[in-house]
Amino acid sequence: MAMDAFMLILAVLAAVVLSSFLSRFIPKVSTPLVQIALGAGLTLLPFYPRVALDPSLFMVLFIAPLLYLEAHDIDKSALAKTLRMSISLAIGLALMTMVVIGYALHNAWPIIPLAAAFALGSALGPTDAIAVSSIGHDASVSPRQRSVLKGESLFNDASGVVGFQFSILAAVTGSFSLRHAAGEFLISFIGGTLFGLAVGMLSNWLFEMLRSFGWETTTTRILMELFLPFLIYLTADEIAHVSGVLAVVAAGLVIRFDRTGVGPNVSRTNIVSSSVWSVLSFSLNGTVFILLGMQLPNAITTTWSHSAVSHALLVEIIALTCVIVIGLRFLWMVAVLAIARDRRTGKRRRMTPHRWRSAAVMTFGGPKGTITLSLMFTIPYVVNSGELFPLRDELIFVASGVIIVTLLLANFMLPLLAPNAEDIHPTELTDITITLVRRTVEELSNRVTDENRRAVLYVIDSYTKRITRLKQQAGHVDSHAMGDLQNDALHWEKDYIKAQLDHTKASTDMEPRVQELQIEACERMLDQIMNSLRHISKPTSSGRNVSQIRGRMRALQRRLQIVTRRASNKFLRTTPLLNEHEIASYVRTLQAQAFEHVIDRLYEEMGKTTYGTEYCSALILDYRRAEAALRSRPRLVNDGTTRRQIDEIKHESYAIELNLIRDMLESAEITRLQARHLRRNVYVMQVDADSEL
């Protein structure tokens, strides 16, 4: 059994890693759907271990830390503005869903007891916080809409769990007291919130006191922080007998000890903590949906193969349940929007087509997921009388069908209802870029040491100049036109370098060592430029991936030729060995020449109509700055150690930018289209790692 559990962990982690790669190649399909499919595929493998999943363990092991992190990272000011709407969805809509589905399902399928139908309705009330944070990257979901959806998913778990528990209790015992259920619900809801707030404030005081005494270390702080959501959930659920879900959410909202304190030690600890939570969040998110996918086949096949109920009736019940869940949610959203008053005028606003579409977006933006299936698996097998729980497998089957349908609708309907605009407003993209650059500077400033201070400050200074230029250009540059010109300029650089490479290879009167140095410099420049062109090329052709693979194969072939040639020279001593300093010197010389060539071409284009004069002028200024920085570096930084440090820090800064873009995309701060433009800019800059950023 222990080996089976270990094999299951390895299989799940492998599937999570694979999903991160697959999502890059199928961006139109949300990552949760990819992970569910992988989880279902795992069950088909011959070595798949048959390990039962304890739903209560699932809640504490996965849902507690993920909800804590979601609450901790949510925009508190945005949540405060949309709190009323989020609470109305989390409590009002969840309870309404329970009642309507209960009565509708009992009337349509009388064999289901009313209490069991209520249990299904309760389980279908909560939306999935993890799915909400993952879907919609290809949809233009407004910050307010996303804030409402996230707030709802944080709070509606408690109402769903409590309603489910009382419905199951009524189904098992055969008795139900509305007064008792309402009282227990209030105690669980309010008690869980107050308990979480108290523990959160106590945690703030404790961590800040440890820091003031100098007792906090990176290891103890991160271990205690990781331990916190599990402690809160278990204490609230097992000892205080209040909602552990709401306690975790409330604590996550008020905890702020990682946002306080100054000094390099605190900064380093916060960086490590952020990295650990980032890895843990992705791993747990992926694991949740992998496990969900692993549970679905068994839940579906058991019912489909052995149920006494006809297959057609099961499909009809799933369809009816989906219509009720989606229709009721849409009507609730329309009602909320219709009665909402304008903050400035205090009057109700009429339902325009835009507001109807907003209601539809909010409807499909609340898919069901792991909480629903976890609750359904806790349905007991027998009731107090000793008889089997009525239609347990069929109820799980219906819930599984609704989960799949709502996830599919969220994935494919949101981009249709709220598609991302094809054009990005220049000012909007500039503002996002400035935010990205500032975060990069903050990250770099936290990595300053006595050894690399000079190099890091040099790179930070170049980023500061970049922010200044971005502010000057705000609102004056068409991002598409400028991007096309930058792309063509890279092609001009590539053609110039290729011509130089061909000329060098064909030369017969050049000293062998100099020829070897120039060939090496040209090859390295071509590798950099081709890599950037592969990344920034527009995905207009279905054969783009094939073209990228071919380009990488050609680059690999060139690198192998260089390595083989240098190895041959080393052993045969046909030419003196090259060193990196000489190669870097030749690369900089070649870069400067290529810059001059591009500048000349840009001056020629200014007299034509292919590109706008203002774009050619702006790009000439960028190339002039890069050329000036390149030629002045030997005077500014005259020792090899600092030069190498600057190169390392610049490459590190590019990696930081790319990671920040990924984080902003995952947290829905930017769309996929905006992320593609931001990455394009980074790849263009990587062509010249020695020039000004």
Write structural notes for this entry.
The protein is an all-alpha fold. The chain has three domains: 2-417, Na+/H+ antiporter like fold (Up-down Bundle); 423-477 and 637-693, no CATH class; 488-612, no CATH class. It is built from 25 helices and no strands. Helix 1 runs antiparallel to helix 2 (31-42), helix 3 packs across helix 10 (218-239) and helix 20 (512-536) packs antiparallel against helix 21. The radius of gyration is 30 Å and the shape is elongated. It starts with a helix and ends in a 7-residue tail after the last helix. Residues 539-545, 634-638 and 688-693 have low confidence and may be disordered. The chain crosses the membrane at residues 47-71, 83-105, 158-178, 185-207, 227-255, 276-297, 317-340, 361-383, 395-417.
> Number of helical segments?
25
The average pLDDT score comes to 77
Profile the largest sheet. Answer: none
The CATH class of the largest domain is: Mainly Alpha
Q: Outline, from the CA principal axes?
A: elongated
Structural class: mainly alpha
